[in-house]
Each structure stands twice: as structure tokens, then as C-alpha cells.
Amino acid sequence: MMQQQQQQRLKQLQQQQLQQQQLQQQQQQALMLLQQQQQSLYPHPGLLAAPQIEPIPSGNLPPGFDSSTCRSVYVGNIHSQVTEELLQEVFQSTGLVEGCKLIRKDKSSFGFIDYFDRRSAALAIMSLNGRQLFGQPIKVNWAYASGQREDTSGHYNIFVGDLSPEVTDATLFACFSVYSSCSDARVMWDQKTGRSRGFGFVSFRNQQDAQSAINDVTGKWLGSRQIRCNWATKGAGNEDKQNLEPKSVAELANDLTEGGRDNVNGEGPENNPQYTTVYVGNLSPEASYTS
């Protein structure tokens, strides 16, 4: 009886050892497969380096944009040394590419990649956004026609500051969509880092809704910060806002960028000398204007 128990115990130990060996082999195989996938995904060692920033969900999309049937991606902030052939080769690592178009600009170019299926496009956004080509992080997002955004050239626009890094266009639009005439919302992004610049613009078809949003939403929490709102155009105080020449959100964005791209000097409202008023909150009740 004792000998049978010892044999059973020995057999159990052998089975455990065999299971451990099989587990180690599976782990080694999984590691080798992962390394092969990484080499396949990034076929240019040193050219496509690991990102210095965490890939973030791109937020520059029209309100209500549906990506479920989209098979194309936009690629921004492309280094001047990148060719169309190289761009296609890099993005073909996530799926079969149907078409590739590179539009060259003086400082940074942009392009569009068309895939045969949505899954490949989604994988490109998740795995390549923020990756570096020649030391320059590319920005990858769903591609959409400019006509999908409403023309806001005749609308009333407000500036929204102190935005949390995680706030996207969709988040900002959802915050102000309680006002029925809210037509568009855009967060300003830094093309060099891929991060939010901490402010954006929201447009309204109705001037009263814009004023109500300024009055009601300022100081409210959006994400992890209390936001602040004001008229987006200089001189848009209560006295002269009737004399405003309306601008679209896109035009306001371009006022802060060069040719649709972020200005190298980063002259946002926080650095622009035309903005001479600051908001100071959480003051004690006895604080006066002179103090």
C-alpha cells in the first residue's frame, strides 16, 4: 500500500513537472510570436521608435461621427524625409493598404491611408498614433470629409479654457449640447506632442445660448478640472458683442495655427499679448477689487 502511494505521488510530481515545462514552452512561444509581430509591425529599426507619449484616443472628429464603416485614416505631422512609399510600407504592417496619398508641406506633411477593411484602420490608429518617424511623432486618426462638419462661419463662438488632457472634441461637444443651438466643438491639439493644448472653441447658432453657456458652464467640472468660458473673439464684451464679425471655429483655430497646423511658437491665449484679462477664482468674501 505504501509503495503504491509513493508511486502515485511520484507520478503526480512528474505530471506537474511536465505541465510546468509545457507552460514554459508556451510562454517562450508567445514571447517569440510577440517579438516577430513587433518586428513585422515596425520593419525599420531606429526609424519608427517607441513613442515618448502615451497613445491617446484622437478627439478631432465631427460630433456624431460614426467610424463603424470607415476604412481610411489621416496621418499628420509627417517628417519631410518620409516618402509615400515608406509611409505605405509602415502602415501596411497593420493590414492590406488599398491606397496611400502623401501631401507635402513646408514644415510637416500629412497623408491618407485607405485600407480594405475597418479592422486594419482601427489597428493603425491604436498602434501607430504617437509613433516616431525620423524622430517626429505622427498623429493618426480616422479620416473624414470636411463637409461632415457644419459650416459655423455665421455662428457665435466661445473660448473654453482649463481643459483636462483627456477631453476630446466629442467630450467638449457633449458638455455644451444641452444648448440646442450648439453646432460644433474643437479641442486644440499640439501636433508635436499629440497632446491637448488645454483649450478649445465651441460654436452656437443662437447668441443667447452662447451667452448662457458662458454664464452657466464657467466653473463647472469637465473631467478633472473646472473649465472657464468667454467670448472667443477679442472685444466680445457685453457692450459690443452685437458688433462682432462672426467667425467659424475652424477660422478661430487657424488664427492660432499656421496654415492649419499648430504654430511653432505655441502662441495660444496663454502666450498671446492680445489676451490681457485673467480669471482668479476661489477668493475670500472680504477680498476687494483694490486688494
TrEMBL record:
Database matches in SMART domains: RRM
UniProt key word RNA-binding: yes
Residue ranges, annotated region (Disordered): 255-291
A GO molecular-function annotation: mRNA binding
Keyword annotations from UniProtKB, A to Z: Coiled coil, RNA-binding
InterPro entries: Nucleotide-bd_a/b_plait_sf (IPR012677), RBD_domain_sf (IPR035979), RBM42_RBP45_47-like (IPR050825), RRM_dom (IPR000504)
Domain RRM: 71-145, 156-234
Polar residues bias (residue ranges): 271-291
Pfam family, one: RRM_1
Recorded coiled-coil stretches: 3-30
Stored PANTHER family: OS07G0615400 PROTEIN, TRNA SELENOCYSTEINE 1-ASSOCIATED PROTEIN 1-RELATED-RELATED
UniProt protein name: Oligouridylate-binding protein 1-like
